[in-house]
Amino acid sequence: MDSVRTLTAFGHISLDGYFVDGHADMSWAHKRDAEWSAFVAENAGSDSELVFGRTTYQMMAGYWPTPQAAQATPHVAERMNQTRKIVFSRTLDSAGWNNTILVKGDMAASMRRMKTEAGKPMVILGSGSVVSQLAQAGLIDEFQFVLNPLALGAGRTYFDGVKPRLSLTLARTRAFRNGNVLLCYTRG
């Protein structure tokens, strides 16, 4: 029997369910304390391929290859730059960040095919439109959300446009001293 690669969505959300505020900003999710930094470094060390939409890809590609990233979080910067990355975009002509594959075709069909190919597990970082489209197609195996202790009042959710209802089962949690709570769900 062929094995299927797993696809996980990882992202931050506010108490009112948004991953970006009304101005498409998510700087509120960037905290720096020892416990949180250790968790981020541990996650960066996982052996997964990264999946992005265009907006998140451009934000990440604009930061992680820089000297500032290497100085601020050397281990994370090294992993981000070395890891294989997949970016879904209808508008990009090229993706120049090291080890990046640009996919311009049907996102769900492409991901369905990639999940059957040999390779590492895949993790969507941020990328709300990718999460909502692949969740609707039933292709995400696990959702990992970091619940941040603040309300934004407006913004976008990861599940904009998802129909029908998406039922999830809580798999595990982890609370951090900075108030963040990691919530991990599988498809129910």
List keywords for this structure.
188 residues; alpha/beta; 8-stranded mixed sheet
Explain what the structure shows.
The protein is α/β, with parallel strands linked by helices. The chain has one domain (16-23, 31-121, 133-176): Dihydrofolate Reductase, subunit A (3-Layer(aba) Sandwich), CATH 3.40.430.10. Helices cover 29% and strands 25% of the residues. The protein has helices at residues 34-44, 54-63, 67-72, 74-82, 107-116, 128-136; strands at residues 7-14, 49-53, 85-88, 100-103, 122-125, 142-148, 168-175, 181-187. Strands 4-3-2-5-1-6-8-7 form an eight-stranded mixed β-sheet. A hairpin with a 5-residue loop joins strand 7 (168-175) and strand 8 (181-187). The chain is globular, with a radius of gyration of 16 Å.
User: Counting H and I runs of at least 4 residues, what is the number of helices?
Assistant: 6
CATH architectural label: 3-Layer(aba) Sandwich
SS-based structural class? Answer: alpha/beta
CATH H-level superfamily title: Dihydrofolate Reductase, subunit A
User: What is the CA–CA distance across the termini?
Assistant: 23 Å
Main sheet specs:
8 strands, mixed
Question: Which term fits the overall shape?
Answer: globular
Give the radius of gyration. 16 Å
Question: Layout of SSEs?
Answer:
Elements: E1 7-14, H1 34-44, E2 49-53, H2 54-63, H3 67-72, H4 74-82, E3 85-88, E4 100-103, H5 107-116, E5 122-125, H6 128-136, E6 142-148, E7 168-175, E8 181-187
Parallel strand pairs: 1-5, 1-6, 2-3, 2-5, 3-4
Antiparallel strand pairs: 6-8, 7-8
